[in-house]
Amino acid sequence: MSDELGSGSAGRDQDHVDFVHKLFNSTDLNAVNYTQDAFNISDESVDFLKGLLVTRIMPSFYIFIILISLPLNALALVTFTCKIREKKPAVIYMVYLACVDLLSPVLPLKIHYS
Q1: pTM for the whole thing?
Q2: Residues 26 and 80 both lie in one domain
């Protein structure tokens, strides 16, 4: 009896792995229909996610922000570490803040837009 339960669980796990693999490795926008049925996503949500705002405008906005923020944060980091000799708590805080800001573009770059 335990073998039957174990094999059934393994089969469901494999189906889940196959589903997740297909979901995250697909670049086809029609693959959303498969996930729409699986997750019960409304038609309005699918239309929004396939729309111009999400697929073109927001990625352009992210690229614009990244192109401006990287050089300015690098300049701030150089200024706070090399130019300011007196290391007060506010300067140390601003150095850490500039470091985190330089590392933050890693997350939006992981987003895949088709």
Answers
A1: 0.51
A2: no
